[in-house]
Amino acid sequence: MELSTEKTIDWIERWVEYIKQNVTALNELDTAIGDGDHGTNLNRGTQAVKKALAEEKPQTLPLVYRTTAMALVSTIGGASGALFGTAFLTMARLSKDGETKLETLLLEANEAMKKRGKSDVGMKTLIDLWDPATKAFRDHKLTRSYIQNCVDKTKNMKASKGRSSYLRERSIGHIDPVAKSSSYLFIALLEVLEEDK
Amino acid sequence: MKKIINNVENIAAEMVSGFVKTNPAKFKQLPETLAVARVDDDFVNGTNVGIVSGGGSGHEPLHLGYVGKGMLSAAIAGQVNTSPTPDQIYKAIKYADKGKGVLLIVKNYAGDVMNFDMAKELAEFDDITVKTIIVNDDISVEDAEDTQGKRGVAGTVLVEKICGAAAQNGMDLNSLAELGQKVIDNTKTIGLALSAATVPAVGHPGFKLAEDEMEYGVGIHNERGYATEKLAPSAVIANELVNRIMKAFGSTNGEFAILVNGLGATPLMEQYIFANDVVNKLNELNIKISFAKVGNMVTAIDMHGISLTITKLENDWKSYLRQDAQTVAW
After folding, report:
1. B212 lies in a domain?
2. Pfam families under this entry (chain B) (predicted)?
3. Which residues in chain B touch residue A79, judged by CB atoms under 8 angstroms apart?
4. Same domain, yes or no: B27 and B115
């Protein structure tokens, strides 16, 4: 399926709003297995996205994705900035090359993040949300409960990438904060698509 | 929490600004970045390979204190304990490149590795040749498949010194990357803490140790170590660290460099006492020390603690370590 430039902006802005509403909750998740600032960092990044979209008023799909990517990478820092930035930069590049299917853009974004982080499913990272969610979206099976289920599954995983990996067994029992913040992106997408119907 | 700051959000920016303003003849801050770069004539008119490093703030004088002739061309500061962003790293690479390429010295943390990787791609898009070496000298962490791997800590400064001196002497990029990797492979560090650091945004120490406790194997971001024990005399601590590091080397043959490093809130008096014990222990083991350095080189904000780094020297490394460097902190 294709998502218009206008709808894409709507989608991203809804994600921005979700992050703003959940800063404290995301920080709390990150306190358990990280340094407690994921909500604050991502909110700084997504607020920069909102500002950049308003000021630059991108008129094409590649420009919307590119504006989003650059705002994220230049304001977040850390691993999450690089990973979210890589996702949107990949979508910018592919849409510029003429790819318009959102399923493909999302699947490729997921692959690019795996490559960037040298990670895969089961390592308790955002890939445990992105990988199943992008595949379910391709198969027209993405629902809110499926997304929630993916987030919940990270709880019993042992981290093997990033700073939380040093906790070994102690990382078990906590939801991955970046899988959680990623879940809002897919929930926002479902909202935009539902409004279309 | 008591800190001499204005605002938690502005810590990195105001620190970089203060550093540059107090050294205006030697450095400048690259526009719209927290990158510090050389402006001396040798650099401006030079044609050497550029050396760029950087990372989260809180480890000063790493990395900005090592910018200067004989060490780094530029260094980028991130927010406290947070990697710098790719756009800023890219600008530093671009500034450091004199047509011979740029070597990136990166500590092994997921955020640093990924952001420097993105910056490398941006620079390569501009036809700048870039090589990356990843420092992972902290042997208190296992180099296991199921973790991020060993962390980059105090040994980073020795890698920066040796590569910086070799670059100053005209070494090409490929040889520098090989040299740097060899130094990393030959460098081992273990740290210990008497009390944890207070990250300003958090406001309290990252973990608690009792009055009479210390922890072996801590990282420079309050990462917990491998053992919490009763506080012991300096000589006992020196024995534990020297034995563990030398066991990892497996051989006492050859020449070695040592770095006794304060983690931020350790008086130099204590660092020299500990250094005295380290040297005594190494002498006892008949290990030849060809270079030694003591001081606050790679810190963890206000952690009270110390780390010991030992590098097994090869070839010209001794002379690279001894070569003059015109930086604020070496």
Report:
1. yes
2. Dak1
3. 83, 110-111, 114
4. yes
Kindly state whether residues B48 and B167 are assigned to the same domain.
yes
Identify the CATH number of the domain in which residue B140 sits. Answer: 3.40.50.10440
Calpha distance B55→B119 (Å, rounded): 13
B151 and B200, same structural domain? Answer: no
pLDDT tens, A151-194? Answer: 999 999 999 887 788 777 888 999 999 999 999 999 999 999 99
Q: List domains and CATH numbers for chain A.
A: 5-196 (1.25.40.340)
R_g of chain B, CA atoms, integer Å: 19
| Length reported for chain A | 197
In a domain, B51, yes or no: yes
Identify whether B177 is part of a domain: yes
Name the nearest CA neighbour of B70 among B28, B98, B38.
Answer: B38
Same domain, B233 and B181: no
Domain residues for the domain of B275 are 187-313
Neighbours of B244 (CB within 10 A): 17
Phi-psi region of B261 (alpha: psi -120 to 50; beta: other; left: phi over 0): beta
The verdict on A166 touching B (C-beta cutoff 8 Å) is yes
Do residue B28 and residue B175 come from a single domain? Answer: yes
Tell me the β-bridge partners of B121: none
Name the residue of chain A whose CA is nearest to B222's CA: A35
- Of B152, B186, B220, the one marking the end of a domain is B186
For the question of residue B221 being annotated catalytic, the response is yes
Interchain contact, A86 vs B85, CB within 8 Å: no
Instruction: Produce one character per residue of A104-142: b if its CB has 16 or more CB atoms within 10 Å, e if not.
Output: ebbbbbbbbbbebbebebebbbbbbbbbbbbebbbeeeb
B66 and B80 assigned to the same domain: yes
Q: Out of B133, B168, B186, pick the residue that ends a domain.
A: B186
Whether B59 is catalytic? yes
| Chain segment A130-139, per-residue pLDDT in tens | 999 999 999 9
Q: What is the total count of domains within chain B?
A: 2
Q: Three-class SS of residue B216?
A: strand
Please name the member of B111, B146, B202 whose beta carbon is closest to the beta carbon of A79: B111
- Å from A167 to nearest chain B CA? 9
A82 touches chain B (CB under 8 A): yes
Whether A122 has its CB under 8 Å from any CB of chain B: the answer is: no
Q: Which of B30, B57, B85, B199 to mutate to test the interface with A (most CBs of A within 10 A)?
A: B85
Chain A residues touching B114 at Cβ < 8 A: 79, 82-83, 86, 116-117
* B294 and B148 part of one domain: no
What's residue B145's pLDDT? 66
Measured CB to CB, residues of chain B less than 8 Å from chain A are 56, 78-79, 81-88, 109-111, 114-115, 117-118, 141, 145-148, 199, 201-202, 219, 221, 223-224
pLDDT band at B143 (very low <50, low <70, confident <90, very high): low
Nearest to B148 among A37, A41, A163 (CB): A163
The answer to the question of residue B320 being in a domain is no
